[in-house]
């Protein structure tokens, strides 16, 4: 039996040297809305998508010795073709084709594929800090 009862995802956090740029990206691309953030000893921006998905953007510690994101490591990691097996967050959208077109119009490099069953399409790309993202197609529940 699991130690936790009724566990669910609360939030995902991303550290960044430019949380305002990252916030703008997630608001423009996915429709996150900025919500009230606590006053901490470092800057944070909290974003919300839908009723229960939260993204916390946290100001990077300038003294940190860790790489900021995948682009800080080796160049092969920055290739979108590596994301299907690499670290990424996945969102689902009902307007997959127009979503991908918007990414292209914004000059965002992508890697697309479909699952072997052909029913689900996927697009992989990076946010401005090099964090891996996937968007998968899903049927529109209102159709």
Features of the shown structure:
single chain; 143 residues; alpha/beta; 2,3-Dihydroxybiphenyl 1,2-Dioxygenase, domain 1; 2 domains; 4-stranded mixed sheet; 2 helices; Lactoylglutathione lyase; lyase
Given helix and strand content, the structural type is alpha/beta
Mean pLDDT: 83
**What is the CATH H-level superfamily of the largest domain?**
2,3-Dihydroxybiphenyl 1,2-Dioxygenase, domain 1
CATH topology of the largest domain: the name is 2,3-Dihydroxybiphenyl 1,2-Dioxygenase, domain 1
Low-confidence stretches: 71-76
How many DSSP-defined strands? 8
Total of domains: 2
Order of helices and strands: EHEEEEHEEE
Name the shape in a single word.
Answer: globular
Per DSSP, what share of the residues sits in E-state strands of 2 or more residues? 25-35%
- Architecture of the largest domain, according to CATH? Roll
The N- to C-terminal Cα distance equals: 40 Å
Q: How much helical structure, as a percent, in the residues?
A: 10-25%
Order of adjacent strands in the largest pleated sheet? 1-4-3-2
Query: What is the class of the largest domain in the CATH system?
Result: Alpha Beta
Largest sheet: 4 strands, mixed
How many helix segments? 2
- Which value, in Å, is the CA radius of gyration? 16 Å
Protein name: Lactoylglutathione lyase
Keywords: Lyase
